[in-house]
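Dig into my protein:

:::
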Amino acid sequence: MAVAVKRIGVLTSGGDAPGMNAAVRAVVRTALYMGIDVVGIRRGWSGLISGDVYRMDENSVNHIINRGGTILYTARSDEFRTEAGQKKAVATCKLMGIDGVVAIGGDGTFRGCLALARHGISVVGIPGTIDNDIGCTHYSIGYDSAANTAIEAIDRLRDTMQSHERCSVVEVMGHRAGNLAQYVGIATGATAVLVPEKKWDFKHDVAERIRNARLNGRTHFMVIVAEGAFNDDEIMKDPGSANKVADMIKEELGIDPRVTVLGHIQRGGAPNARDRVTATRMGYWAVDCLAAGKTNRVVCHRNGTICDMDMEEALMIPNALNEHEDTVLRAMTGGEFYEK
């Protein structure tokens, strides 16, 4: 089979997500299978600027499918946002004979791809973010593993909260997106869930739900808060959504909540089966796109099927919470019923 590229590079950028290594492995093995040379680019766009690249083979990706993090490392690059930085990256591609680049990450990574493409380099993006906040795809690598990490931690917290009859406020990741908080809230049977996308009223959405739960005989309560739940300028000045909510609970209800910020623990650990398989399928598809001469594509998971989409079109699709999950969550937490 004739392929449109002779050598490709693969990089990871932005926040790491479980399954990124599985995607890198799939890109490398698929490229070699198709007779395409492949190089690894360390530290994302920063590494492409500095020329931090190396040839990869099957041995380079042995035994990494089960590892969290990314063997290629990841870093954010302010320099790559400049025209001068982009020209340095293009110069590296020309020097190393890189015809195409597979970039694994989120929206910011894809915008970097478009910048590189404007200089004539073929690019394909693979969505990898635990927030699952890329509008063009129903699923991004790392989401399920991160959710399960949070669920396991919250289940353990519930055991001790129940023993001491306490209220727990747990902050999960999601600065601008509440997908993870909503999903985890359903899975853990939370008393209340707060996300950036939905306007919420503390007395109605938190205090009353705790009060009703207590009247129904429950003595412990679990409140899940996305880190960006206070979606305004104040959160940028004084981060800590969970601590703010805990203070409000103490003042309104007179109980003393315990705050747990899960933080970066959600990024770590081995990817689960869903993320390993999805990452592998996406990695294969990305190389297949480049081999076919495609560029400016994002690999997507839509309605259970792997496909690809024009990158500029993909970036125009806004992220949105799963409305059915939102409806279910309202029912489970005692929110108001409404007809659509």
